[in-house]
Amino acid sequence: MRYPQGGGLTAERQQFREELRLKAAERFAQGEASSVIANDLRVSVRSVQRWRRMWDEGGPRALRSQGPASLPRLNDKQFAQLEAELAKGPAAHGWEDQRWTLSRVKTVIGRRFHLTYTIQGVRKLLVRNGWSCQVPARRAVERDDEAVAGWAREVWPCAEDSRR
Prior knowledge:
By secondary structure, this protein is mostly helical. It contains seven helices and no strands. The chain has helices at residues 11-29, 34-41, 45-58, 76-88, 102-113, 119-128, 145-161. Helix 1 (11-29) packs across helix 3 (45-58), helix 2 crosses helix 3 and helix 4 (76-88) packs across helix 5. It is elongated, with a radius of gyration of 26 Å.
């Protein structure tokens, strides 16, 4: 599951979940049933059973938060350098048109920082740092409004009817 800030839980939410696991650990020591603990803490029985297994193997320390699952591969300084590269525009990096695509940003990251990202990873990196998809400020000069209107009037209804 993805979270609003772009990755993982907030520090407060991590703390809350850790406290739940530690409360469960106290009740494991008292010998309470997993279903009772799950009902009282308002979590699933399966989670309590998983916590109990961890507690059996490593005690209460095993239920402590492990921190974030991964750290960003580009640190803040490197991301600032990436933003500076993107500000130069695609032409400065060898592309003819002025469009930044995820695959182009991926290529720039690979060339500049010698890191390999997936297309989805580039998107997540940009969104996490406040970037968003952009819509052109003005319409293309080549746009033919009459052709678009004709297509919407003649072709689109046929395509729309074929859906079940």
